[in-house]
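In keeping with the milestone schedule agreed at the kick-off meeting, the structural modelling team has produced records for the first pair of proteins. Each record is given below as a sequence line and a C-alpha cell line. The laboratory manager (R.T.) confirmed that both were archived under the project's standard naming scheme.
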Amino acid sequence: MATTDIDSKPIPPVDFRNAIITQHWNDPPQTIFHKLIDHHEKLSSDEIVQKLGNILEACKQGLKNTSDKKIISDTEKRVKTLFERLTNNNLSESILYQLGKICIYLDEKDFTNAFITHSNLMKRNFDSEGKWLVGVRRLIDLYQKKISDSNQ
C-alpha cells in the first residue's frame, strides 16, 4: 500500500471490481415500481347515483334567476345520461373509481381535488363519455358556488 508523507496513513487501494454500488446512476428509484395506494374506498354505482343526485337536488334549491335554472336543467339532462350508464353497468371500473373519488371529494368539500380528478377523466374519456362529463363538471361548479354562497 502506498503511504502519504503528511499523515503516514496508508491509502486504501481503489478498485472498481470490489466496489459496492448501492444506486447506479442509471437505475430508476425502486419507489416507482410500487403500486400507488389510494386510501379512498370504492363506491358502488348506486352510491354514486345517490350522492350525485343529492348534490343535484341541493343545487336546485333556492334558484333565483332563469339563467341558473337553464344551467341546472341542462346539467340535469347530462347527469341523467350518467345515471343511466351507471344503472346499466356500462362504465369501466376505472371510470367508476374516479367518479367515486369525485363524490368523496364533494362530500369533503374538497373542490380542488374534485376538479383534478374530473380533468383526468376528461383527458382519458372525453371521446366516449363527453356528454355526461360536461354535466359532472357543471355540477361541481354549481355545488361549489352554492357552498360558497351559503358560507357568506
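The second protein of the pair:
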Amino acid sequence: MKCRLRPTPFYPPTMIPIVPPELINLIIESTQSGLDILQLDKETLAACSLVCSTWRSFAQPQLFQDVRLGVLSRPLDQFLAFLEATPHLAKAIRLLNIWHLEETLVDPPAHAGNNVNGEAPAEPADADVPLAAGDPPQPTPGSLCPSLIYSIAMQLSKEAHITLEGVVIPCWPRDTPFPPARARLSRLSLLRPLYETPRPPHTVRFDLLGLFDVDSLLLRDGRAETPFDLEFLSPTEPDAPLPVTRPIARRVELTGFDELAISALLRGGFDRERLTAVSLGSCQGTFFSPGTHESLVLAGRMLRAHSRCIRDLDIAVLPTTSGHPAEPVRLGAAHSEVFRLIYSNIFNLSTCTVLENLTLAWSAPNHHSGEPDPTVYEVLGAIVASAPPGTLRTLKLSLLLTAGPDALARIMRLLVPLIETTVAGFPGLKTITVAITRRGFTEDRCVDVLQSVVPMGVAESGKLRFEHRELPSSS
C-alpha cells in the first residue's frame, strides 16, 4: 500500500496572515476597558508591548500615560535623558507625578535597623563633615532644580499634567539665563512643596511660575524657608503696570496658605489677559486657627488683584475641621458676627465687573436635629449680593450634606430667600443650580424634599436646577 503524503504548502511572505493594526489597538484597549488613567493595568500593557514591534507601538503609549517618580528613588536627569531619546513616549505622557515624602528624610524604614551581619548601619562617609571654604553648597535631599523641571516639561505635550508633591524647589540660579520660551502644559499642580528662598525673599526673583504657560494651576500649602510677608503686597490698582514677566495661567486654584502665590502677587499677579477663572478653597484646620486666617487673607488678596479679569469664580465658604469634608466647623454664637464680617469683607465681589459664573461650596454640620447655623447662609447671600448688577449669568450652590433629609429641608428654607433675591437682582441670570452631595438617604427622598420646600414661583421661573449625587462611603 502506497502512502501518499501531501507536501507542506509554501506561502510567500506577502501571504502570511497579518492582524490589522486597528484590531490590535482594540485588543489592547479592551484590557483597559472601564479604567481611567490612574487605574491602568500596567502589567498587562507591559506584556502586550513585548509581543512584537507592532503591538509595542500601540501598548507603549498607553503604558506611559501615567508616570510616577520618587525624587530619591531615581535621578531625574536620567529620566530627562530617556525622554530626549524617546520623544514619541514623552509626548504620550498625560500625567507625570514627581513626589517626595518628607518622612524619608527623618525616619528610616522599619526593616533598616541592622545590616545583614546584625551590626548597626554605618554612617555615610560625608556625615557631619563640614564643607571647606569655597566648596559648593550641597543640594537638599529631595530638591528639584527648576531648570530640570523646565527641561522635562519642554519634552512633554501641551496636554500633559505635571504634579510636584512634597518636593524641595530652590530659586532659579542667578548665573543662569532665564529661558525665553515657556513650557506649555495643560495643568501644573504644586502640592505641599518647600521653596528654598534666599534672604531677603521680597527682593529676589523667584520665577518658577514664569517658566510655564498652563491652562490650570493648582497651588496647595506651599511653604518657604524664609516666608514671604503679606505686608509687602502693594495696595496699588490691579491694572498698574509693572516691569515684570507675569505668570501665565488661565485658571488658578488656591488651597490653603501658599508662599508661591504670595511671590506671584509680589510680582504683580498673573497675566490678566489670559486669567479668567479662580478657585479659592479652604485650608485644613478650624476656622479661627492662624493658618486659616492667613489663607483667608491671601485668598482676598488674590481675588482683589485679579477681580477685573475673573469670569469664573469658585469659593469654598466654610473651612472644615481636620481636613475631612464631612466634619465642617460648627460656629458658636460669639463667633458668628466675626465670621460674617470676615467673609463678607474678604469675598466682596463689587470690583468683579466681568464675573459671569459663581460657585459657592460649603458643608453642613453633621447633626440630625436642630436648626442649621443661619450665619453661613447670610454670608452666602452677602457674597452674591456684592456682585455688580448685570454680571452673573450662572450661580451654583454646592452643598455637602451628611445628615438626613430633615436637615436638607431646613437648609433649603434658608436658601430660598437667597435664590429669590438673586433671580430678582440679576436680570441676565440664566440658571441657579443647587448641587447636593448627600449621604444616608436616597435620591428620590432628596427630590421629594427639594420639591416640597421650593416655592412654586421659583420652581416655575425656569432658572432653578438641581443636581444630586451620593457621597461615596469611603469619603
